[in-house]
Amino acid sequence: MRFGIYNLLFVCTRIRAMNKVLVAIGVALILVVIAYFAYGYLSSGQVNVYIQDPEGNQAASNSSYVRIYLTVTSIMLHKENATGNPWVTISNGTETVLLSGSPTFLASAKIPAGTYNEVRLVVSSAKVEIGGVNVSATLPSAVLKIPIVGSLKLSGGSNVNLIIELPGVHYANGEIIINPATVAYVQS
To answer: Strands 44-52, 159-165: parallel, antiparallel or unpaired by DSSP?
Structure first.
């Protein structure tokens, strides 16, 4: 009988030791997962990109039946002092938007924290609707390189709205021309 009791005590002691090890491993795994998500949260922020046709734009404000549509195929931000490729992609999806006096949502993404100073907007087409008739607009360049006024400073865990304004849309020689001299700013 004594041999059986010692074996039982030995087995119970081993089980308790294994339980302590399993609990320690479980706690360590939970801490690793928390650290991973905390690092991801603190090392990146959310950027929401909007586009608008500010008030005073001749093409849009002179007539209520003129509508300007842009088809955007890529949005990227230029990160200052980046090692390697400084361009961070916000979206590579195709989005057609109607320009209006209020900001229209284009895309959003979670990107690395840092300071960004330029937006690269790739536009595949620009259309104008005049009285229900679609007309192509002239866009001197399919890639708009837009400076961010005052830069975009993105900290970990933050959420920032970036507004792109197209003030250079106008009539000239019977055409609607979209001037690539646009600006972007952070909306506070």
So the answer is: parallel
